[in-house]
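Thread: "does anyone have the structure for this chain?"

Original post by V.I.:
We have the sequence but no experimental structure in hand. Need at least a predicted one for the grant figures.
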Amino acid sequence: MHESADEKIDRVRLYPSIEPFDRRMLDVGEGHKLYVEQSGNQHGEPVVVLHGGPGGGCSPAMRRFFNPEHYRIILFDQRGCGRSRPFASVENNTTWHLVHDIETIRRELGIERWHVFGGSWGATLSLCYAIKHPDRARTLTLRGVFLGRQRELDWFYGGGAGAFWPDIWKKFLAPLPEDERSDPIAAYHRRLFGEDGKQALDCAGAWTAWENALASVQSEGVFHVPHAEFCRAFARLENHYFHNRLFFDDDDFILKNTAAISHIPLHIAQGRLDMICPPISAFELADACPLSELILVSRSGHALSEPRIGAALVSFMDRIASGR
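Reply from O.Q.:
Generated one for you, tokens below.
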């Protein structure tokens, strides 16, 4: 009997998370030190994992998409978040600083070329890195594609997603005066970077909770607020990047530069019900890249923890490992 793509995804399981064989703090200059770890096969094919946010940080769960007997798995916390220092700092913290950091890590670890893996903001950063360094990325594997365009920000922070979740959207807007609610990114920016520390923390919690509430297709709309320190870094960094339009000089920077990555195999697992990064961006990216494979994963949203998204990513990485 023929097995459908959905059935193949459903039988794939994540790998166990194994302890790193190397942890270090890497000085990348301009006052920033990054937490970097390596796990898996020390002599295996290197893959660098770019976390979301900006400001989310890496976690042990991110090791589980790779066969540890085959891959040398490199995770790091981007500037200002996780175990990197200074914490929650936006100084010298732009897309292009992070692209520079990825190259610094590659050189420090003595790697010539590697696989690049990222989701959400990590997908954006993966694409930016590959565009700037097209000879270093062997493959690109992405989830929850975000191209950093104004229309995508307008969807999530301008009422598009709020039309599906009006009760949660109302809570997101609640910390803001009514006359500032037409531009939540700017209004939150004034408070996250203002003089009132308590207000900044309250706004950081509300900013983070809005995204968390919509991440999973299983969500019941719980306005969950993670611990305050995580919220402070996540909200400050994410808002800093979005307030500055991701430091792109063109709203369509990525799609206008896909010719630079046309030779790189591109694999995309996109939740069909992703409320944070709607599938149209993944579809347009795949359409622009000749060596792309897009799976629109049914019954799945945005989160990396979505079981069927995770299974699709493992399937991609297993196929890459086998040379297929």
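V.I.: this helps a lot. Residues 197-214 form the longest helix (18 residues).
O.Q.: and The chain has a mean pLDDT of 95.
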